[in-house]
Write a structure and sequence with these properties.
By secondary structure, the protein is of the alpha/beta class. The protein folds into two domains: 24-83 and 302-318, no CATH class; 88-292. The chain contains eight helices and 15 strands. Helix 5 crosses helix 7.
């Protein structure tokens, strides 16, 4: 049996061979070694805006800044580089804001584009457009990923520090959503994953939702287990029947994301109290509807993102993080 290291080398070789066979579509990914980084001192005019790194020497500082940049920029990550070139790029322009979609699977159908546009339009109504601007990229993967929480494959994954939503093969299927009545799968997954960035937008709303609809399980013995280990923290819905789907009953975050799908597409199926709180806190009716435009690119037209210019960082000893007040 081959080792993980050997298999990784073979994957890289296969990707390289594929790219050589299709030179006209061979887009080169930027690597971390391509990125210009510089450690600055207090006399540098950009010192205040430089990225903070905690490290004890220059080598550790450089390693830490590289790890941070890789974690925040999807195109620097081996997982995406190993996929090769995206099949297509779709730039979605919403007013003066742009989100780029990179599709690594089969080309999107016209219905995909309609649902993408509808999801973006709906999300732009949330928190005065602040939720929309937590995402810069939508990555449509060609590989499934298992979700141990739901015991089925993931359909999507929230943006996180990459500001990139990931949509898995199951999430792009043009079928009914299944979890919520009267909504489609692809549009619902997009709205759901956008909504996972709500914590960056309105913690007052998050806290109000948890206080009203969820309860903390203090007794450790009553908490659920994952892989034989009880949760370190667990909340349960005060009234599970008020959750718009079974998946919404798993955590307060999933409850919010599922409820956002219902509130924006089919509000009649959402509990009245949840709809009232969502509408009051988050949803707004825009007088001037933003124009949404989609521009499709394929082949040589596809352009991968890059970090431009020089990244400056400042480093302090790691022990300073634990300095007593």
């Amino acid at each position: 049996m081959s080792s993980p290291c050997t298999r990784r080398v073979l994957r890289h070789q296969l990707i390289k061979m594929k790219n050589l066979e299709n030179p006209e579509q061979n887009l080169r990914y930027q690597t971390i070694d391509d990125v210009k980084i510089k450690r600055v001192s207090e006399d540098d005019p950009d010192f205040d805006s430089a990225i903070d790194i905690f490290a004890d020497d220059d080598n550790e500082a450089e390693l830490e800044i590289k790890k941070k940049l890789i974690a925040e920029n999807w195109w620097l990550q081996p997982e995406w580089q190993e996929k090769g070139e995206p099949q297509e790029q779709i730039d979605v322009t919403i007013g003066d804001y742009k989100i780029s979609v990179y599709n690594f699977g089969e080309l999107l159908a016209e219905q995909h584009l309609e649902e993408l546009k509808s999801a973006i339009e709906n999300i732009s109504k949330v928190a005065e457009g602040k939720l929309l601007k937590q995402v810069k990229y939508i990555l449509i993967s060609n590989v499934s990923k298992f979700n141990p929480q739901s015991e089925e494959n993931f359909r999507g994954q929230g943006a996180g520090e990459m500001q990139a939503i990931e949509i898995f093969p199951e999430g792009r299927e043009l079928v009914p959503y299944g979890r919520i009545e009267g909504v489609s799968n692809f549009e619902s997954i997009l709205i759901h994953e956008f909504s996972h960035s709500m914590r960056k937008v309105d913690m007052d709303f998050i806290n109000a939702w948890q206080k009203k609809f969820w309860k903390y399980i203090k007794d450790v013995d009553k908490r659920r287990k994952m892989n034989g280990v009880r949760y370190a923290f667990q909340q349960d819905p005060v009234d599970p029947q008020k959750c718009v789907s079974k998946y919404a009953q798993t955590t307060s975050d999933e409850d919010i994301c599922e409820s956002m799908v219902a509130a924006l597409i089919n509000p009649e199926v959402l509990d009245n109290e949840k709809l009232e709180l969502t509408s009051k806190k988050l949803l707004s009716v825009k007088k001037n509807v933003l124009q949404i435009q989609l521009a499709k690119k394929s082949g040589q037209e596809v352009k991968l993102p890059e970090i431009d210019g020089q990244i400056k960082y400042k480093a302090e000893p790691s022990g300073i993080m634990f300095k007593p007040l």
